[in-house]
Amino acid sequence: MKIKITLLFIAMITFLTGYSQGKVMTKQVIKSTILNRDVNYTVYLPEGYETNQRNYPVTYLLHGYGDSDDGWIQFGEINRLADAAIKQGKIAPMIIVTPDGFKSFYMNAADGSMNYEDFFIKELIPHIEKTFKAKTDKRFRGIAGLSMGGYGSLLYALKYPNLFVAAAPLSAAIWTDSDCETMQDGMYNTYFGSSIGKSLKGKDRLTPQWYANSVFSIIDKKTVEELTSVKYWIDCGDDDFLTVGNAQLHIALTNKKVAHEFRIRDGAHNWTYWRTGVIDGLSFISDNFRAK
User: Fold this and answer.
1) Confidence grade of residue 291 (pLDDT, cut at 50, 70, 90)
2) pLDDT, tens digit, for every residue of 200-215?
């Protein structure tokens, strides 16, 4: 009996000491002057963060429409997935930041009600790099997200190639000019009423604000040098209503001769798909952290 208890104790100690677990800090707050409000964010700190002196690369992981800063923890289980991936060597130990993006599509609103892009670039990134042990060079800063957050990760990587080494949009919410023109009024007003312009119809929706935030328009205007300074991992399910837009993104980058990774996997627009794909995206970003 004593032998069995001893063996069980040894097995438990082996299990506990062999499992690396990071730390999650939810509902952290940054007081935004630009947005004139408090903004919550959740941060994942890798195992060992609090016991060593090193600085870590950072990946900003953006949530989808209608979610909040802790969605990637609650539904995406990103802490559990990151713990396992770091232990297995699939991704480098990194800080993962998931800010509350509200329903902003991560852009500056046409009506000025929420200049989220300005907040993210001018306030959030400096705040994170001041508050945590974060590396501050472009080569150690990545961005990813799902759906609305996939769009946001593309938008920022395309607009600010000097800030990010790699982007991994999952099921990115991107539409062509034609999609915008023909989108049902209810859908258009829900998603773009504040950010592009309320109650617009047809070609009237293709405003300067639309083109300033259309990934296709941005890609068309960017030089190949600018586009290739960020590495892209694009992933969308074959049953996702956003598959066509993502395929056209692949074509747009291909036409500009911009090397990138493009994946269409079996799946739809849901958490099952994103949970099974996010580590591949983070691994891609991590490989670029490690590249020289």
Assistant:
1) confident
2) 999 999 999 999 999 9
Is the pLDDT at 281 greater than 90, yes or no?
yes
pLDDT at 72: 98
Strand (E) or helix (H) holding 272: helix 271-290
What is the distance between the alpha carbons of residues 194 and 111, in angstroms, rounded to a whole number? Answer: 6
The residue written with tokens 């990071």 in the block is 22
What is the longest distance spanned by two Cα atoms in the chain?
80
Q: Pairing relation of β-strands 95-99 and 58-62? A: parallel
Nearest-5° Cα angle at 279, 274 to 281:
85
* Locus of tokens 């300033």: 212
Closest by CA to 59, choosing from 142, 119, 147, is: 142
Q: Does domain 21-290 have CATH number 3.40.50.2300?
A: no
Domain ranges of the chain: 21-290
Helices (H), 46-147: 71-74, 78-87, 116-119, 125-131
Which is nearest to 96 in space by CA: 39, 168, 37, 148? Answer: 168
Q: DSSP readout, 97-115?
A: EEE--TTSTTSB-TTSS-B
* pLDDT tens digits, 73-121: 999 999 999 999 999 999 999 999 999 999 999 999 998 999 999 999 9
What single letter denotes the amino acid at residue 4?
K
Q: How far is it, in rounded angstroms, from Cα 76 to Cα 196?
A: 29
Contact 34, 47 (CB under 8 A): no
